[in-house]
Design brief:
It comes from Erwinia pyri. The protein is of the alpha+beta class. The chain has three helices and six strands. The protein has a single domain, classed as Gamma-glutamyl cyclotransferase-like (Hypothetical upf0131 protein ytfp, Roll). The protein has a five-stranded mixed barrel. Strand 5 and strand 6 form a beta hairpin. About 25% of the residues are buried.
Amino acid sequence: MKRLFVYGTLCPGRSNAHILENIGGQWQPGSVSGFYYERGWGAAADFPGIVLDERAPAVAGFLFISDNLDAHWPLLDEFEEGYDRVPVEVTTSEGQKITAWIYQLQPQVEERPAAAAVTEKAL
């Protein structure tokens, strides 16, 4: 797959955007359904994270499309330690549904209920 949905520091204009910019590709605004956490947990404690859920609100981000992604998955997987790369349905700004990869927070059984409870209360 030659598409990656990003919602955190890899987005254009953010602190780690250069990682994808160096790969070369196109950006397209979009969204996915999930619970967004300003800061993750575990290995990803200082970075935002998402837990996908079709019943959750839309989380805005960007679809990165590049023919060069296949050669860079090992590097991106290493960079995204603490996250799992999983397929997701992205809704583009034009309403089109596209399948892409996304880095989702890895499950942390002990900590997830507390984090989820805080997010649900805020909604």
